[in-house]
Specification:
CATH class of one domain in chain A: Mainly Alpha
Oligomer: heterodimer
Radius of gyration of chain A: 20 Å
Helix content of chain A: 40-55%
Number of strands of chain A: 9
Strand order of the largest sheet of chain B: 9-8-7-10-6-1-4-5-11
Number of helices of chain A: 11
Structural class of chain A: alpha+beta
Strand order of the largest sheet of chain A: 1-3-4-7
Order of helices and strands of chain A: HHHHHHEEEEEEEHEEHHHH
């Protein structure tokens, strides 16, 4: 399996990272927060103009039909920049789900940037940015429905991450049914896989950003006439965090390269990716906070935004216990080894 | 009107540059490279000219190593129509000197017959600020450098230049060479669909020999050194003390 990104994918990742470096700085995010908001219309417009909402939507449905492996670095960039708008959730999970369910009207509006769509799923029961959305996709155990936001009772819930407003959405009568029975179960499973995968990618991006922030800080802060980063007690913390990020990277690449799939091997690979990226990112955030010293805990240092987002994403789309159970199912179903590492029969698309 | 835009692959402006241990230049191994920011502004301006109907085709040209094709793909993704890569070096550390670049660009210009050549005013790696001027001289075309505004109409280009103490407006007859400055525009980010389309746009590969140009270096880098580290500041207790220090120690007032 070749994990190297294509030239095209590198260009896309560079363009998205560049746009976010300009338009999604933590100073801009703090200004947004000071206004009591978590959604910047101008930035959203620029992301839509880049064609990002349709990244994973098939070309036949008006999207770009990118392979999932090419979307992973885009999700990483969004995570690293702490993007508050629900781009990864919409482009990575909700709109591909709408496309697979055959919905076209709302999909076209979302791709054009005229509407946002929120999602409620058993593995992510609180809807993100629901109050601003035009509609909410309700994934239930036996069916998938679509309801306009005006027809729903939306109750805001306290969010760990100040940039991710979450809400409980009460089921509506008269919502449009998109799928039922086994078709709904299959779509729901694929949405869950995507949710876990893109959460993993975002967390990996945040883990790397935490290390970069910390490395820059310890090179600039001096004690005893030397940068504090030159002391083993400091640099080994960051080196260990970087090793964990590097070891999580190919796990994510493998999972995204063969996603979406339909068997225990793909499910385990995605679960493994979220576990590896989540633990690596959390370790990186904690190490970064520690090497900052006491100020690492302060509101003024940006690291707490990353840690809060990492913790929020760790809890969504499969808790660590659920993910470990998925990996265990795969291990006990077939012996692990090189010949079963990337089984062809499991891959789709 | 066809617009020719030379683009150079340089070390990314966000990268902290490190001098090679032998002092022959900066270390480019495993370093992020990007399009020279001034060239990016030139590409953007060419696209805007095309969007306004003042240009019909944009040709991006790069001279250097094979990896410069990535820089050209970026230009194509932004909106250039086709690209020419002149592979003039195999080692990423070999910088093709401005005169050789100007000779190659002049040869390309004679082949392509553009109405306007838009160059970045300088490359951020060697800061030579010479290629555009040399190119205009070699072609015998008018030149306007450091453009902060550009208007093309009726066979002429009106160029606003940022000069010491103000602005200067020049009108040059086309074809001409215009080098662009930082404040001309803000380059766009290529959209995902355009990045995908760029893959299908033509990128022609050439060699210096195809144009009969010798790119052998004429200059020798004697030494490269990092700038001296910034010294720690001094906290003063009062305005009077500050004035005294500026007057007696710094000698600036």
């Amino acid at each position: 399996m070749d994990f190297a990104l294509s030239e095209e994918a590198r260009l896309m990742a560079g363009a998205v990272a560049g746009l976010l470096a300009d338009s999604c700085t933590t100073a801009q995010l703090r200004a947004l927060l000071a206004r009591g908001d978590s959604f910047d219309r101008d930035r959203w417009g620029r992301l839509v103009a880049m064609g990002l909402p349709g990244a994973l939507v098939p070309e036949a449905a008006g999207g770009l039909g990118l392979p999932p492996a090419d979307f992973a670095p885009l999700a990483e960039a969004c995570g690293a920049a702490l993007l508050p708008e629900p781009l990864v959730e919409m482009a990575g999970i909700t709109l591909p789900l709408l496309a697979e369910a055959g919905e076209r009207v709302l999909l076209a509006r979302a791709l054009a940037g005229e509407a946002t769509v929120a999602l409620v799923h058993p593995r992510a029961p609180f809807a993100l940015h629901a109050a601003r959305a035009a509609a909410v996709v309700l994934v239930e155990p036996s069916r998938i429905r679509l309801a306009p936001t005006g027809a729903l009772r939306i109750t805001p819930r306290e969010s760990l991450d100040p940039f991710r407003p979450i809400a409980e959405v009460a089921a509506a009568e008269g919502a449009e049914t998109l799928a039922e029975g086994t078709a709904a179960a299959a779509l729901s499973a694929r949405a869950a896989d995507r949710g876990a995968l893109w959460s993993a990618a975002q967390m990996l991006g945040m883990g790397q950003r935490c290390i970069d922030l910390a490395a820059a800080f310890v090179q600039g802060r001096h004690q005893f006439g030397r940068p504090v980063g030159s002391f083993q007690a400091v640099k080994h913390h960051l080196a260990s965090a970087q090793v964990r990020v590097e070891l999580a990277r190919p796990v994510l690449a493998a999972a995204s390269a063969q996603s979406p799939g339909a068997g225990p091997a793909t499910a385990a690979r995605i679960a493994h990716a979220k576990l590896a990226c989540g633990t690596a990112a959390e370790a990186a955030a904690c190490a970064a906070i520690q090497v900052h010293g006491a100020m690492g805990y302060s509101w003024e240092v940006d690291l707490h935004f990353h840690l809060k987002r990492i913790l929020a994403l760790s809890a969504a789309w499969g808790t660590p216990a659920e993910l470990r159970a998925t990996v265990a199912t795969r291990i006990f179903a077939a012996p692990p080894g090189p010949e079963t590492l990337f089984p062809e029969e499991d891959a789709r698309g | 009107m066809k617009v020719l835009v030379p683009v150079k692959r340089v070390i990314d402006y966000n990268v902290k540059v490190r001098v090679r241990s032998d002092g022959t230049g900066v270390d480019l191994a495993n370093v992020k490279m990007s399009m020279n920011p001034f060239d990016e502004i030139a590409v953007e301006e060419a696209i805007r000219l095309k969007e306004r109907g003042a240009a019909s085709e944009i040709v991006a040209v790069s001279i250097g190593v094979a990896q410069a094709s990535e820089t050209l793909r970026t230009a194509l993704a932004m909106g250039a129509d086709r690209a020419i890569l002149i592979r003039a070096a195999a080692d990423v550390h070999q910088d093709i000197e401005p005169l050789a670049v100007a000779k190659l660009l002049a040869a390309v210009a004679r082949d392509e017959g553009p109405g306007l050549i838009l160059c970045g005013k300088q490359a951020i790696d060697n800061d030579m600020n010479a290629t555009g001027q040399m190119l205009a001289a070699l072609l015998g075309w008018p030149q306007a450098t450091f453009a902060s505004a550009l208007a093309v109409a009726d066979g002429t280009a009106e160029v606003t230049r940022e000069v010491d103490g103000g602005l200067q407006v020049l009108r040059v007859a086309l074809p001409a060479v215009v080098t662009v400055d930082l404040r001309l525009n803000e380059p766009r980010y290529a959209s995902l669909p355009n990045i995908m389309k760029a893959k299908k746009k033509p990128l022609e590969e050439k060699a210096p020999a195809d144009y009969g140009v010798d790119v052998t270096p004429r200059l020798t880098v004697v030494r490269t050194a990092e700038p001296a580290g910034r010294k720690a500041g001094v906290r003063v207790g009062s305005v009077d003390e500050l004035i005294a220090k500026l007057k007696d120690e710094a000698g600036v007032i």
